[in-house]
Write a structure and sequence with these properties.
The complex is a heterodimer of chains A (about 220) and B (about 600).
Chain A (H helix, E strand, L loop, with lengths): L2 E6 L8 H14 L16 E3 L8 E9 L8 H11 L4 E7 L8 E11 L8 H8 L6 E6 L2 E6 L4 E8 L3 E9 L8 H10 L7 E11 L7
Chain B lengths: L3 H5 L26 E7 L3 H4 L3 H11 L4 E7 L3 H9 L18 E5 L6 H11 L14 E5 L15 E3 L3 H18 L3 H8 L5 E2 L4 E5 L5 E6 L7 E2 L27 E4 L1 E2 L9 H5 L4 E2 L2 H15 L3 E5 L9 H14 L3 E3 L7 H10 L8 E6 L3 H6 L6 H13 L4 E8 L6 H21 L8 E8 L16 H12 L7 E5 L2 H11 L6 H9 L13 H11 L3 H4 L15 E2 L4 H12 L28
Parallel strand pairs in B: 1-2, 1-3, 3-4, 4-5, 9-19, 10-13, 13-14, 15-16, 16-17, 17-18
Antiparallel strand pairs in B: 5-6, 7-8, 11-12
Classes of the chains: A alpha+beta (about 220), B alpha/beta (about 600).
Chain lengths: ~220, ~600
């Protein structure tokens, strides 16, 4: 089954996971690329996206698995046709075969940008790095079964905080499967434990994905 | 630093409604255009994006050189609050720029309960609500849609109305504005010229005078304004613009599919139905053109669902031919084809079978509207009990096990016997299921819904009184007490909303201050249960000293001057009076194919004749 590596940026970050699946199904049709359909009572076009992205989060490393009814198109042609049929903000970077099994996916790199309108507070970066070197940092996580508490520390592989102009950039490598850490919870931890460092606005970008050995996953 | 709007978006529900950027949206350089139109739909994105009329006119205006039309929708409550807290004025989706920077602000209004949204959107845009307070050409507010057939409640706020089908008149209006802007006309001069375009109604050019009892005494056209304004129609639908390059929303909307309109107008003449009279005369599209447009639309949009639309699709003569062409195409391309608004005839039954290959069985829906044949004759609803039961029998033996039945309560001449007739009909449907069902294990579901009859302008029932709210509820409870079966699920429409709808449907200019006051009280998104609050409206009526009963339970005299007398939709008042008389005599009027009943709408046609 071929795989597409794509990015999701700009206003497209507000397209939800389910809506994005539908968007791709239609983009394949517009591109003249016939998808195979699942067998069963309600046949569905076979597309699936690994690791659902939270609403509002950017990404440069999304994976889409799909299956075409014909193998008459080269991978570059599929990429170009799709890009001509996609909305701004969703762009296929490459299409390839022989992608690894999604269950081997283990870590991802993310950047949480925290904006401070009145300037970055003194020694904020150091305080944050100190926070995440504790043994327990527990935040509330909303899930299917209501709100649960989660200690984020065991799921952080590495974390650094750098100061930019009027903002801090928290870069981290975190678990993304079994268990999963939503990078926005790192921001939530800052708000909870260091309320004086709570930013005026926070955004997040998924940068790269890795396997258990921390080599880039494709 | 991230700008304010971008900071708000992650905090609201379904932010994709506010960002634009969908497949098929039209973007132009604002330096390259002379006229910018903010096309506002007075409800949420999900409702507005499902509207075919808006899609058509969006394309019509954007096809004009030098014109850029963008979309604007009413924000949901959380977004509205965030906008107000951050002093962020309402914006258009394509450019993301404030509506107050636009030349023209257009509204399409299909439902009276959207009136509060119109004022709320103008307020969110930071545009003066009153037409009289907008002095220049900038922010010219105009409106169309079925509610424009009685536009008086909005007369204070809207500069002019565009009546009827918009494909041609919109081009004429926007072209005139283009010229007015280039030549630096005053607003007055523009409106004076616009009023000369057939179908344009400028409310400020008419004075409404009242009698002591509150009824209208006269409508006086000022300075040579036309006494009647006649709605516009498109004569040849085959050559009319149709948006095959539709916008494909990136988020789910109510009707997320392509829409193929097969004809306009209606041959049936159900006496309560505004569309049935005000959309006449009948004009069809040819199956060839429809098929071509269907294929183009599906190819360009990538949609996997298409629906056939009209007021009564079984009355479309080209239906067999169209289906012969479309069914194989849809099957081959895995497209769902849905054909609603079918009557209970043999062809439709066969078609339903063909459409149901694979997948779930949808439910059957009937709208008998009244429970007894006597009352169905009064309202001229040509659907017999035998037709309903035969269709049900066929469906049940074919495996269907769900039926929806829609009725109205409070129809003219209705008695308790008619109300209980609904229960009897429902039991006959259940009996039919017991006799015919192939699989009784899954049980039967009969969904019964009753609406509160709202008399509408330009129908034979335009003079009728609406029953009181208490009487409506009494009839609902009476009916409910006669439903014993567990298979029946009974819903009745909220009476408050239908009462307000009745007020505004036949309202006059004295309702302008009421709408304004209600919006001040916080009324908005009235079509949504989450937001509708009758108290805010009742308070507004009290504050303004306006009596709702005057517009509802009073009824209008046949010789009374009606607020919408200036508007001519084609069907003559004489015909409506005659139809009303026949209703009271219990006489049906056969559909237009059995002979022209002489409604008068044919005089709108110059090149072709009515296709009834």
């Amino acid at each position: 089954m071929p795989r597409a590596l794509f990015e999701k940026t700009g206003s497209a970050v507000y397209i939800s996971h389910l809506d994005l699946m539908r968007l791709f199904q239609r983009a394949f049709k517009r591109a003249g690329l016939p998808l195979t359909h699942t067998q069963g009572f309600n046949p569905r076009p076979s597309v699936s996206i690994a690791l659902p992205l939270s609403l509002g989060v950017e990404s440069g490393c999304e994976l889409l698995d799909f299956d075409l009814e014909t193998d008459g198109f080269s991978f570059d042609e599929i990429r170009d046709r799709l890009n001509a049929a996609l909305v701004a903000g969703v762009r296929v970077l490459s299409v390839y075969d022989g992608g690894r099994k999604i269950k081997e996916l283990a870590y991802l790199d993310c950047v949480v940008t925290m904006e401070y309108d009145a300037g970055v507070p003194h020694e904020a970066a150091e305080q944050m790095e100190a926070l995440f070197s504790r043994e327990n940092v527990v935040v509330e996580k909303k899930g299917k079964n209501g709100v649960t508490e989660q200690n984020v520390i065991p799921m952080i592989r590495s974390l650094t905080v750098a100061e930019g102009e009027g903002s801090l950039e928290l870069s981290a490598r975190v678990c993304c499967q079994n268990p999963t850490l939503n990078p926005m919870l790192l921001g939530a931890a800052v708000n909870k434990y260091l309320p004086e460092l709570a930013p005026d606005f926070m955004k997040c970008r998924r940068v790269e994905i890795y396997d258990t050995k921390e080599t880039i996953f494709r | 630093m991230t700008e304010r709007k971008q900071r708000i978006l992650p905090t609201v529900q379904k932010p994709a409604r506010y960002t634009g950027g969908e497949w098929g949206e039209v973007k132009k350089q604002k330096e390259d255009v002379r006229v910018r139109v903010a096309f506002c739909f007075p409800d949420t994105y999900e409702i507005g994006m499902s509207n075919l009329g808006m899609r058509i006119l969006y394309g019509v205006m954007n096809n004009m050189e030098g014109v850029w039309c963008e979309r604007v929708f009413a924000p949901w409550g959380d977004m509205e609050q965030a906008m107000r807290e951050n002093a962020l004025p309402l914006w258009a989706l394509e450019s993301q720029e404030p509506v107050k920077d636009f030349d023209m602000i257009a509204f399409t209004i299909g439902y009276e309960m959207a009136y509060s949204n119109i004022l709320n959107m103008l307020s969110l845009a930071g545009v003066p609500l009153h037409a009289a307070d907008r002095k220049g050409l900038k922010n010219m507010v105009f409106a169309g849609g079925v509610c424009a057939f009685n536009p008086e409640p909005l007369a204070d706020f809207v500069d002019f109305f565009s009546l009827g089908e918009g494909e041609d008149i919109t081009v004429e209006i926007v072209s005139l504005y283009d010229r007015a802007k280039a030549e630096g006309w005053s607003k007055e001069a523009f409106l004076r010229e616009a009023a000369k375009i057939p179908g344009v109604y400028v409310p400020s050019f008419y004075r409404h005078e009242y009698n002591e009892d509150g009824t209208l005494a006269a409508i006086v056209p000022l300075d040579g304004a036309p006494e009647k304004v006649t709605k516009r129609i498109v004569e040849d639908l085959d050559s009319a613009y149709f948006p095959t390059n539709m916008i494909v929303p990136s988020t789910e909307i109510v009707h997320d599919r392509a829409n193929l309109e097969v004809f306009r107008g209606c041959i049936r003449g159900c006496r309560f139905c505004q569309a049935g009279f005000s959309c006449r005369p009948v004009r069809k599209k040819s199956p060839e053109v429809l098929c071509r447009q269907a294929v183009e639309t599906m190819t360009a949009s990538g949609n996997n669902e298409i629906t056939i639309s009209s007021l009564s699709t079984s009355d479309y003569r080209g239906l067999p031919e169209l289906m012969d062409k479309l069914l194989p195409y849809c099957k081959e391309n895995k497209i769902n084809l849905s054909v609603p608004s079918l009557r209970a005839d043999n062809f439709s039954r066969e078609l339903m079978e063909k459409l149901q290959t694979g997948g779930r069985k949808s439910s059957l829906t009937f709208a008998p509207e009244a429970g007894t044949q006597r009352l169905r004759d009064v309202i001229n609803k040509n659907l017999t009990e035998a037709e309903i039961l035969t269709t049900c029998a066929n469906a049940f033996s074919g495996g269907w096990n769900s039926v929806k039945l829609y009725f109205m309560l409070g129809l003219p001449t209705e008695t308790d016997e008619d109300v209980l007739g609904i229960a009897e009909l429902v039991y006959k449907v259940i009996q039919t299921w017991k006799e015919q069902a192939v699989n009784k294990k899954r049980g039967l579901r009969v969904h019964v819904a009753t609406a509160y009859f709202v008399p509408k302008p330009h129908t034979p029932f335009q003079w009728e009184r609406q029953i009181t709210l208490q009487e409506y509820l009494r009839r609902c409870h009476l009916l409910k007490s006669h439903f014993y079966s567990k298979s029946i699920e009974y819903d009745y429409h909220a009476p408050d909303l239908s009462r307000l709808e009745a007020v505004f449907a036949r309202g006059d200019r004295r309702l302008g201050p009421v709408i304004e006051q209600a919006v001040k009280n916080g009324a908005r998104l009235d079509g949504w249960d989450e937001y509708f609050d009758y108290g805010k409206w009742q308070d507004a009526f009290r504050t303004c000293g306006v009596d709702e009963d005057f517009y509802t339970v009073r009824g209008y005299g046949e010789d009374e001057v009606l607020p919408w007398d200036t508007i001519d939709v084609g069907v003559s008042k004489k015909f409506l009076r005659l139809e009303r008389k026949r209703a009271y005599e219990g006489k049906v009027t056969p559909d237009c194919r059995h002979g022209c009943a002489g409604c008068g709408a044919e005089r709108l046609l110059e090149e072709v004749s009515c296709d009834a």
